[in-house]
Amino acid sequence: MTPRDPEATGKAMAEALVAAADDNLDDFIPPFANAVRSLDGSKGPTWDLFFKVAPYQIAAPVLGDGLAAVKRWSQLLGKSKVPSLKALKKPLDKLIDEADAAVKARTDAALANEHFRKEGALAEFVASVSKKRDGLAADLAAMAAKSAALPRNYASRFFRKRTTKASAEEKAAKAAKKAAEQQKKAETEAALKVAQAKVKAAMAELKAMKKAK
Q1: Crossing angle for the helix pair 67-79 and 8-40, nearest 10 degrees?
Q2: What is the mean pLDDT of residues 78-90?
Q3: What is the DSSP string of 38-68?
Q4: pTM greater than the 0.70 cutoff
Q5: Exposed e or buried b per residue across 149-176, where buried means at least 16 C-beta atoms within 10 angstroms of its C-beta
Q6: Residue 127 and residue 117: Cα distance in Å, rounded?
């Protein structure tokens, strides 16, 4: 039985935490924008200090670039002399901490999943199955070798052909090698044509010299 990813549940929970943190920060932005706007309007210095872009643009990628934006707000609120704004720092910091924790949980879950697939239980399971497959294939091949009634490719009939997906680096290296080979072939053909032209010219010159005699 294929081993189950022990981190699958953790990964799903981490994604849920990220989504929740994103929603909570998105919900914070409109009232915060209203609080800032109430001080000197949407074109005043306070607004310009906090909002380099429209609020909706910050809300869209909250746990991306937007998270960095609201962290900058926290720093500004810590220095603010306006009580109504300063009071918003504590709830904002709580949301930021939750977002940071969610992002870390998602990263940790992704790393655990990668380990599970490349080095952990799944990798060990795949290696074990591959070893058993090779052993069975060898036994079937030996059986076919001893029996005139069985074809030589008897063992291969029991298994699907293995397919490997080339990585982007392998594809790039293969393409570069092919391009280099084509370039070398073109250069060789061009050099050959030049040599042939020289030989043809030399023969024509020799023929002309003979006629002149």
Answers
A1: 50
A2: 94
A3: HHH-TTSHHHHHH-SS-HHHHHTTIIIIIHH
A4: no
A5: eeeeeebeeeeeeeeeeeeeeeeeeeee
A6: 11
